Amino acid sequence: MKKFLLLLLFTATLACSEKTDEKQSDAYIPELVITDSLVIDRLTELGMIDVKEDHSEYLFFDWKKDELLRISEHGEVLASANRSEDGRDSFKARYFTTADYYGEDEILITTHAGIFIYDLDFILKEEKPLDFSLVTHRIGGSNAAEVYKNYLYTFSVDNDSGEKVYNSEEFSTSYPFMTLRDINSLDIIKSQYIPEQSLMAITPGQYNSLDPIVRFIGDEIFALFPNSPELYVYDLPSFEFKSFQALNPGDQFKKIQPVNRDINFDGFFKSLASSQYTNYAFSNGYLLTQYEGAAPQDEVDALPKNVVGGSDFEALVKKYKEKQFYQIFKGEEKLWEGTWDVNLWSVRDVLFSNAKPGEDPEAIEKDVQTIYFYELK
């Protein structure tokens, strides 16, 4: 990896960072620092899907070419393959739902068709049928399945129960979606209902984004539901509930209401007018959370309701939903909340972006793809 001689620092006190009106903590507020970069000799933009535990390599997906790629820590393409097409090594679907490093030398991919285990050259070694379905609206990097050591976490419903659960008026509380499994046998170790403290339990119903963002750290499992501003902690391997931390976002966080099933596209319009947590990461003893803005309800109400994705709809998405709000915590104390002029993502414990602060990654066409790694310091 390329090492920066001069680390780029920026905090809430810089001009490029907009503070909210909320009073900030008097404690030290860490700086967001670019610590490293990964330069990949690839014209098309890649999406990071997973990272090895020792950070020796990264798993990417090329959405234009439908290719999976293993990239070394030096940016070298170690292997690439299109496994969405027909063939002996295909995962039998156009897109996968999740893809994770599994052990030292395997990659585990989930689709609606099953679980597919590949070697590091993307040669299929084993295929397992599923008696459950992942509950998610996302593909190619969903939060609905995660691999950790000998465990497979899934946010799922048993196939035999699916129709009854999906037709339930109290969908979000009708089934123990959160499940910890033995990764070899897929037998259930423990299942959990959505926490009773969450918005989705207090106001049951259908939500477009229900599956939580899950992180495994040591002997704990952390879960942040997109629509509910709390971070939940579970024990590993018992998967027993331990505690939760209220994130207390500012007034710009708009809570969502369940979908009205009698109204076409209601879930999309409700999501447009509400906020959603999109990521979080632990960095050097701090917790960094991230949520998107919400379009004003009157502007959403003014949209035509017979179409989703039109120019007016997309204009509101760009104006409001692409704006990210960040929170920094030390323990349970919120040190800061506000905006930065960079969009961050995280995979496992890696915090990254495809741009530097203030840089538009789509402004110019580039011959290489550069991923910037960040930490709080």
Between the first and last Cα atoms, what is the distance in angstroms? 20 Å
Mean pLDDT: 91
- Beta-strand portion reads 35-45%
Structural shape: globular
Radius of gyration: 21 Å
Major sheet: arrangement of strands: 1-3-27-26-25
Q: What fraction, in percent, of the residue positions are helical?
A: under 10%
Largest β-sheet summary = 5 strands, antiparallel
Low-confidence stretches: 1-22
- Given helix and strand content, the structural type is mainly beta
Number of helices: 5
Kindly state the number of beta strands. 27
Describe this protein's structure.
It comes from Algoriphagus winogradskyi. This is 6-bladed beta-propeller protein. With 377 residues, the protein is mostly beta strands. It contains 5 helices and 27 strands. It has helices spanning 162-166, 199-202, 266-272, 297-301, 311-321; strands at residues 8-10, 18-19, 32-40, 46-51, 57-62, 67-72, 77-81, 98-102, 106-111, 114-119, 124-128, 132-134, 145-148, 151-158, 178-182, 188-192, 213-217, 220-224, 230-235, 241-246, 276-283, 286-292, 324-330, 333-339, 345-347, 350-353, 369-376. A 5-stranded antiparallel β-sheet has the order 1-3-27-26-25, with no helix packed on it. β17 and β18 form a beta hairpin. The relative contact order is 0.13.
